[in-house]
């Protein structure tokens, strides 16, 4: 889904010249472009991320093709997470968007050297504010390994509620893993007392 309103107010990032869709206090979000394929390809090749998210490293060519395809699709929006100086530090997305049901899935991955500094929470809050504050979603859901402590901590901090476990739902390194299912509903987002990304 593309957002017609609210994109212009975030403006152009001074350092990189990228058009920001969202500017929160400590990070900005900019739409992923095909020239970002190399960055995403590098991050997706990180073994920790591959293990935690269950992604399979693809060729750079396949990555480029996928971004091109995703740009045409209106069931997902992909963003780079940027520091205030324009440094790209990760990828966040609203995928599987279903406008009739008002549902979408959240994907989040930071480059290893930028983890553990609060950027994951900042990026997630900015995306959540976009999904509920500018787009008509009612439910955002995430699945992650039940052992992915950092993801569970970040999601819980952003208000996501643990709603269940998909047992033996993925296979990594020769064994089956359970996936925790978390979600955030619009009324729960409305009840959050934190400042919104647009207040930054
Ligand atoms: C999961 C991920 C996005 C988290 O982002 P991050 O920037 O590292 O996390 P933050 O620094 O914002 O941490 C937010 C909170 O979680 C807590 N936290 C982070 N890692 C934790 C861990 N391993 N155990 C317990 N708490 C943890 C932090 O202490 C912080 O809480 P606080 O503000 O109360 O101190 C990042 O680690 C990542 O990209 N991992 C690989 C890909 C992945 O697993 N994606 C998740 C798919 S849903």
From TrEMBL:
CDD domains per UniProt: NAT_SF (cd04301)
Matches recorded under InterPro entries: Acyl_CoA_acyltransferase (IPR016181), GNAT_dom (IPR000182), Ribosomal_N-acetyltransferase (IPR051908)
Superkingdom of this protein's organism: Bacteria
Annotated N-acetyltransferase domain residues: 27-188
Pfam families reported in the protein's UniProt record: Acetyltransf_3 (PF13302)
Protein name stated in the entry: RimJ/RimL family protein N-acetyltransferase
Natural source organism: Streptomyces clavifer
Lineage: Bacteria, Bacillati, Actinomycetota, Actinomycetes, Kitasatosporales
């Amino acid at each position: 889904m593309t957002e017609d309103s609210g994109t212009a107010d975030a403006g152009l990032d001074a350092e990189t010249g990228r058009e920001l869709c969202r500017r929160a206090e400590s990070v900005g979000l900019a739409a992923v472009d095909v020239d970002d394929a190399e960055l995403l390809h590098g991050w997706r090749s990180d073994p920790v991320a591959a293990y935690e998210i269950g992604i399979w490293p693809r060729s750079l060519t396949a990555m480029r093709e996928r971004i091109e395809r995703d740009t045409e699709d209106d069931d997902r929006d992909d963003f780079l997470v940027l520091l205030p100086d324009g440094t790209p530090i990760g990828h966040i997305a609203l995928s599987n968007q279903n406008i009739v049901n008002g549902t979408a899935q959240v994907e989040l991955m930071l480059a290893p050297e930028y983890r553990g500094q609060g950027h994951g929470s900042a990026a997630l809050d900015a995306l959540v504010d976009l999904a509920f504050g500018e787009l008509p979603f009612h439910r955002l859901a995430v699945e992650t390994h039940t052992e992915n402590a950092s993801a569970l901590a970040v999601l819980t901090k952003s208000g996501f509620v643990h709603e269940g476990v998909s047992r033996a739902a993925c296979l990594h390194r020769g064994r089956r893993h359970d996936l925790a299912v978390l979600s955030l509903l619009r009324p729960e987002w409305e009840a959050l007392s934190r400042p919104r990304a647009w207040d930054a």
